[in-house]
């Protein structure tokens, strides 16, 4: 039997015609997938007009050493809640390591560390997340909607947000321009 945590540490790419406009061209870094459900952070879209400095000021944190990086739309669930997907060289109280590839932190201590210049070497900030209940993502994976590719820190940290969807498909040898909206049956 296949492990139910198989998507942890991978990326989900929304297929054209997924049927939910919130996920058009979505790229989701899967941080957990087990029998209880799944959670991922959207990394394919930045929030227009919101940079890290503004977010830090809203949280009464001086931007300090932090670059004014874009803030990503992490997903439709709990959009006021912040998450940082980051390299494994930093860990806080609630940090979870994701399949030995990256880490996820969801408390303010990581933002304080980034602003102080003592945080992780590589990171991205997102508001909200994508979540699935028990068995929900497994069901979605059996229908048209999502395509998974191996987690690659290059796609996560070295590729611009607007290029991640195409780059994710290229990593699987697929030209995203050739993808159709319709699915067939065999």
TrEMBL record:
Domain of life: Bacteria
Sections of the chain in a coiled coil: none
InterPro entries: AlgH-like (IPR003774)
HAMAP family, A to Z: UPF0301
Family: Belongs to the UPF0301 (AlgH) family.
The protein's name in its UniProt record: UPF0301 protein Q5H94_10635
Species annotation: Sphingomonas immobilis
